Fold:
Amino acid sequence: MLKFTSTYPKSTKVLEKFKKYVVRASKANLLRGKGGRFSGKAGALHKSIKGTISKKFNRSLKGRFTGGTQMPSLSFSMLDYGKFVDEGVKGSKSSYIKNSKSPYKFSGSKKSVPVEPIKNWCNKRGISDKLAFVIARSIYEKGIERTEFFLKPFESRMDGMLHKYHSAIADDIADNFANQLRKKLNNNKLSKTKK
Structure:
């Protein structure tokens, strides 16, 4: 009987290439244009963008490794406020045209965004932190303009990556069965020569 024991090397390679592209392009997009105001080279959001490829190894009910893995999967992570910078946030009074599809909106009783991070931002740039309250109120009323720093690189290569990924999965499965068959045939030849 043939067992499936692949670790999906070709499909993992496809995901790895896609991951590197999306992370690199997202970071580059943050550093230019309006997204740059949310991070510098050492900015927390810039540093936090990561991709992780997960491969769960197949195990028996007793927890022993049985060979092979489940198909690899890719996930991306970043600081929580990255999704607001990427997708934009509608303001309480007006909004940027780009933000029309954003699911996020400022509302509530506070009438401002948190002031402390803006004070820190002002202090780093030599701006009086008294302006932090004015800036916070302005952000709350106008919103945060959509940058799509992550969404654009992700969507630009997604279709091509999926096509390559599915082909690579098929190749990995075919290679695995070919290797298993080769081993089985070699074992049969060895057992016949010993007789």
